[in-house]
Specification:
The chain has 224 residues and is an alpha/beta fold. It has a single domain (2-221), classed as Purple Acid Phosphatase, chain A, domain 2, CATH 3.60.21. The protein is built from seven helices and 13 strands. It has helices spanning 14-21, 48-56, 71-74, 120-123, 138-150, 165-171, 177-192; strands spanning 2-5, 31-34, 60-64, 79-82, 85-91, 94-97, 101-105, 108-113, 157-160, 197-200, 207-209, 212-214, 220-221. It has a seven-stranded mixed beta sheet, with no helix packed on it. The chain has a six-stranded mixed beta sheet with strand order 7-8-9-10-12-11. A hairpin with a 2-residue loop joins β4 and β5.
């Protein structure tokens, strides 16, 4: 089985996640996918217990990057091929799913695109907690297009951190201009790609609109 959750933020929501996963009989064959802002790779001196928790789960943990990750540390991990796409391999039980890649898990195809914008940048607060790499580069946008072209713009599922523009509007989110290029890119893909369901996080609320699901306060089994 594949289970989805979003925005754990390292220690901040780890106890909540533990309580949720204690209710699920996870196995070696399962995957837990965090839709960005996992906060697992954050500091060389802190968060050791966070990583140990994920390493100790029966399942493999996969995560998209959000806008709250330590990209300087994350990008030091080796890039490898895993389930059809490129990943940063943290360990044999923990992988970072990279932007614009297509993966095959449990016989289902997944298009993944992380990234987002930290509004802290606009207030110049907590400068050590934001990274320039949080927003995608032009080459990452193109990587997504190239991989979707090879897949004939057909995948089973789409996993992103932020929402396409139209979904953000439905939720009443006030989109910031600095993130809008990513929202609009995903909006373009939402109109072009054939998929069963699209899951995202970032906005810290649960929502359901057609094939789109926003996650925050629940662990959702894929397909539900």
């Amino acid at each position: 089985m594949i289970y989805l959750v979003a925005d754990i933020h390292g220690y901040i929501r780890l106890e909540w996640l533990k309580a949720q996963l204690d209710k699920i009989p996870l196995t070696e064959a399962d995957y837990l996918i965090i839709l960005g802002d996992a906060g697992i790779i954050w500091s060389k001196d802190e968060h050791g217990e966070v990583m140990e928790y994920y390493q100790g789960l029966a399942c493999k943990t996969l995560f998209l990057d959000g806008n709250h990750e330590n990209f300087d540390l994350l990008y030091q991990y080796p890039v490898e091929r895993f389930c059809g796409g490129q990943v940063h391999r943290i360990s044999d039980r923990l992988y970072h799913l990279m932007r614009g890649e297509v993966y095959l898990f449990d016989g289902q195809t997944f298009f993944v695109f992380g990234g987002g914008f930290s509004v802290k940048k606009l207030t110049h607060s907590s400068p050590i907690s934001v990274w320039e790499q949080e927003m995608p580069t032009e080459s990452e946008y193109q990587n997504g297009i190239s991989n979707l072209e090879r897949a004939n713009y057909q995948v089973d599922y789409v996993l992103t951190h932020v929402a396409p523009s139209s979904l953000a509007y439905i939720m009443g989110v006030n989109l910031v201009q600095e993130e809008r290029v990513l929202n609009d890119y995903l909006e373009h893909l939402a109109k072009r790609v054939t998929f069963k369901k699209w899951y995202f996080g970032h906005h810290h609320r649960d929502m359901q609109s057609g094939a789109f699901t926003g996650l925050y306060s629940q662990v959702r089994r894929l397909g539900e």
